[in-house]
Write a structure and sequence with these properties.
The protein is mostly beta strands. Helix content is about 5%, strand content about 40%.
């Protein structure tokens, strides 16, 4: 608060500008004497913390929907959904779309094909009419699934993988001559 000025007579007045405090504030900015330091900015989320996007029950989307990280849908979507993230379809959701994401958790109704690079979880109230392709597929009791599923290693090259790994018919054994 008080400042000793060297080389000045006590009768001289100090300038109107307060001197800069040499001790930095917590955010490493110099603080003017007598000034209240500004609050530190809110910390940003670390890159590992995924942000969640929510489409509530009163939201209706027609067309292509793309997102990153996580999306929770409890409204209506008609069209196409694409992401490298995770999609959660809520109990009130009504989806008529082709879905291509990393993971899908279904609590509501989906009419359309689901392709997941990782997994698809069908919860007890889920109703799916369409095909599912995923590395992992789980289905709780009470879920309804009408369609075909392809479960296994790679969902991206599933058509060519099935053709390449189709078993070849075994040759009939040669007759054995016993004389």
């Amino acid at each position: 608060m008080f400042q000793k000025v060297i080389g000045k007579n006590s009768g001289e007045s100090l300038p109107n500008n307060p001197p800069i405090n040499p001790a930095p504030a917590p955010n490493n900015q110099p603080v003017m004497a007598g000034a209240v330091p500004a609050p530190a900015p809110a910390p940003s989320r670390p890159p590992s913390a995924a942000s969640r996007n929510v489409l509530s029950t009163d939201v209706e989307v027609k067309g292509m929907l793309k997102f990153t990280n996580d999306l929770i849908v409890d409204g209506r979507i008609e069209g196409e959904i694409q992401s490298d993230g995770n999609l959660t379809i809520g109990e009130n959701a009504r989806i008529k779309a082709e879905i291509r994401t990393a993971t899908v958790i279904v609590h509501g109704k989906v009419h359309g094909n689901i392709t997941a690079s990782d997994r698809v979880d069908l919860k007890a109230g889920a109703e799916i009419v369409g095909d599912i392709k995923a590395k992992i597929l789980t289905m709780e009791a009470g879920a309804v699934f009408v369609g075909k599923s392809t479960v296994g290693a790679s969902t991206q090259s599933a058509p060519s993988a099935t053709a390449a790994t189709a078993p070849t018919p075994a040759a009939a054994p040669a007759p054995v001559n016993r004389a």
